[in-house]
Amino acid sequence: MTDIVYLNGEFIAKEHAKISVLDRGFLFADGVYEVIPVYRKTPFRSKQHLTRLFDSLKKIDLPSPFDEQRWLDLIDEVVALNVEHLGENQSIYLQVTRGSEPYRQHQVMAKPKPSVLIMSSTLKDSAQTLTPQRATLMEDIRWLHCDIKSIALLANTLLINRAKAQGFDEAILYRDNELTEGASSNVFVVKSDKIYTPPKSQFILGGITRDLIIELCLQHGLEVYQQRIHIEELPEADEIWICSSTREISPIVAIDDKIIGSGEIGPLTTRISSALQDFKSQLL
Ligand code: PDD
After folding, report:
1. What residues flank ligand 1, with Cβ below 6 Å?
2. Atom of ligand 1 nearest to the CA of 181
3. What is the distance between the alpha carbons of residues 171 and 159, in angstroms, rounded to a whole number?
4. Which residue pairs from 137-141 have beta carbons closer than 8 angstroms and sit at least 24 positions apart in sequence?
5. Which residue among 159, 244, 257, 282 has the highest number of C-beta atoms inside a 10 angstrom radius?
6. Count of domains forming the chain
7. Which residue from 145, 148, 228 is spatially nearest to 189, judged by alpha carbons?
8. What is the bridge-based pairing of β-strands 42-43 and 31-39?
9. Nearest protein Cα to ligand 1, atom 2
10. Do 26 and 152 lie in a common domain?
11. Which of 153, 159, 186, 276 has the most ligand 1 atoms within 8 A of CB, as the residue to mutate?
12. Residue from 32, 33, 35 whose mutation best tests the ligand 1 pocket (most atoms within 8 A of CB)
C-alpha cells in the first residue's frame, strides 16, 4: 500500500505528488516545516507545533495558508488515510514554501501561492527503550536564525553525515565555544543532580520536546537551568541526553573519545524518559 500525502489541495499517492521546478522551496529552500509525532492517531502537542509553525512563517514574512483548525483537520486526514499501513503511531512532516513564480529570481515579484505538503511515516513504538548513543562535537556552521524551522538544512545534513561517517550517532554543536544543540535535537546536561540546557535564542530551535522536558523536570521537583554551557564543561557532565519529537530522549554516553559519567544510561535520563512516557500515556 502506498503512502497518501496532501499536496496543494489534493490527497494523492506519494509517487504522484509532484512540485514545480520553479517552486521557491526547491530553488531557494524558501520555506519552513514541522515534524509532529502522532501517537494512537492523535497528534502530540499539536498546538505547540502549530504555534511554532506560525512563528517560523511570521519570521520569513509568509502568511499561513491555513488557520489552526484547518491544519489540524488536514493532519488528521493524512493520519487516517495512512493508518492501515503505517500504523497508529506516525510522524507527520509538513512544509510550507513560498510557492512558484514564472522564472527563477531572488526577489519575490508577484504574490505566489504557498505550496503545502503534508506527509507521514511510521513512528517507532512510543514505549521507547533507551539506546545509548555516541556524539561528536562539531562547530556549528549554520546561519544565525536557527530558531526558524527552515527547510534550508544543508549545514545540518552535512554535519550529521560527517558525524555518521565517523561512526557517531549525532553531532553536538558549539558556537564560540558554547553548546548550541544537536544537528537535529536539543541537548541537556546533568551535573551534580542539576539539569542544564542552553537558553532559547536565535542559535537554537526552541524544541517542543525540550519545553516539555523542562515542564516535567519542574513537576518532579528537579532543578533545571536554561543557561549557557561552555564546551569545556561537557566532559565533566554526569549525564547528557538529546531530545526531539521523533527520537524523544536519547542518552549520550560518550562525546568523541570521552566517556560521559559512568558510560551507561544515567538515573536522571531514565527518570525523565519515564516521566515523558507517563505524560504521554495519561494523554492518550
Ligand atoms: N528536528 N533542534 C533541531 C536543529 C532540530 O532539527 C530538532 C527537531 C530539534 C528538536 O525539536 P522538537 O523537539 O520540536 O522535535 C531541535 C526534527 C525532528 C526534524 O528535523 O526531523
Report:
1. 35, 181, 184-186, 205, 207-210, 244-246
2. 2
3. 6
4. 137/171, 137/172, 137/173, 137/174, 137/231, 137/234, 137/255, 137/256, 138/162, 138/163, 138/171, 138/172, 138/173, 138/174, 138/183, 139/173, 139/174, 139/175, 140/173, 140/174, 140/175, 140/180, 140/203
5. 159
6. 2
7. 228
8. antiparallel
9. 185
10. no
11. 186
12. 35
Q: How far is ligand 1, taken at its centre, from the CA of residue 119, in Å?
A: 17
Q: What is the residue range of 238's domain?
A: 133-283
What integer is the mean pLDDT of 72-87? 98
pLDDT, tens digit (0-9, with 9 covering 90-100), for 8-51: 999 999 999 999 999 999 999 999 999 999 999 999 999 999 99
Q: Would 127 be classed as within a structural domain?
A: no
Q: Which three cell numbers stand for residue 216?
A: 516535567
Distance CA 43, CA 21 (A): 31
CA of residue 235 to ligand 1 center, whole Å: 24
Contacts of 215 by beta carbon, 8 Å cutoff, 6+ apart? none
Q: What is the CA radius of gyration of the chain?
A: 19
Q: Is residue 263 part of a domain?
A: yes
β 223-226/194-197 pair status: parallel
Question: Which of 245, 248, 280 maximizes ligand 1 atoms within 8 Å of its Cβ, making it the mutation to test the pocket?
Answer: 245
Q: Rounded mean pLDDT of 179-183?
A: 98
Residue 63 CB-half CA count within 13 A: 6
Q: How far is the CA of 244 from the centre of ligand 1 (A)?
A: 5
- Do 118 and 137 belong to one domain? no
- Closest protein CA for atom 20 of ligand 1: 184
Percent pLDDT > 70 in the chain is 99
Its pTM stands at 0.97
